[in-house]
Amino acid sequence: MMKGKLFLCFLLLVVSGRMLSCNTCGCSLSGNTLGINAQYLQNFIGITYYRQFFKQTDGLDLNINSESIYSEIALRGGYKIYPWWQITAIVPYKINSFSSAENGSDKKINGAGDISLVNSFVVLNTADSLMKNYRHQLTLQTGVELPTGKFASAYLSEDFPVSLSAGSGSYDISAGFIYTLQYKTWSLQTQGNYILNTKNKEQYAFGDRMQTSVLASKSISAKKFAVAPFAGMEYNKIFADTKYTFEQEGTAANILQAKCGAEIYYNDLVLGASGAFPVKAHFDEHVVSAGMLFGAYLNYKF
Length: 302
Description:
Elements: H1 2-9, E1 44-57, E2 64-82, E3 85-100, E4 106-112, E5 116-125, E6 134-145, E7 172-183, E8 186-196, E9 204-205, E10 209-218, E11 220-221, E12 226-238, E13 242-243, E14 246-247, E15 253-266, E16 269-282, E17 288-290, E18 293-301
Antiparallel strand pairs: 1-2, 1-17, 1-18, 2-3, 3-4, 3-5, 5-6, 6-7, 7-8, 8-10, 9-13, 10-12, 11-12, 12-15, 13-14, 15-16, 16-18
């Protein structure tokens, strides 16, 4: 039973969100992923933590002009309404900071973020077929992010990235898929997701996001627990933010990153951790370097 379930759980809720350049990160670390949930076919409650930092240089002598740190703690819960339908809720709390060496300014933002709701629909599952060594599963997902966090509109006229805001101030929607191929204790998972961000009351819209990833996993079972290490690649494209109809400079990005991590299963507990390491990135003409995105979580199945 444990081996049969591991392939459903090997992915962390890693990355994604607007976690890219100085003005394309932070505001939605959790709602971003919407396409992947570590317990997406089971009832569960859990807590997650994410952290990533960015540095921006002047492009000449590479002196650091600013640093941004984006962190999030989120409560997550999933409820399986039918064997093929699950609803997941994500309630985040943001801990963001920004420091500028150019003008000596610092800013810290702590507060509740935007709540996300995700529907997961299993449209293909060959678990009961005669080909027991192979298993295919295709899950389609739709989601909505509610404007429950505060959008710091004052930053639009100040020398701070609006991505420090705890919330986007807008209703955003997402659609995606997860396809998993399992062969015995090996799993290969591909995922795609698109987030459509709408304008808020200040007529500001964070850029849409397109994300795709491929991850491989191997389940290793012991007497009382199991481990599932995983590794793979992810590509993210962030479109430019807009104010009214005008694109905002320095808010678009393309990034390719490598991922690795592991999950540990003990009875009804799932403990996971992962890191995402930038391989190649372009941050819309800004000289920005991204640090490792670290994620960890603990889930309880019931």
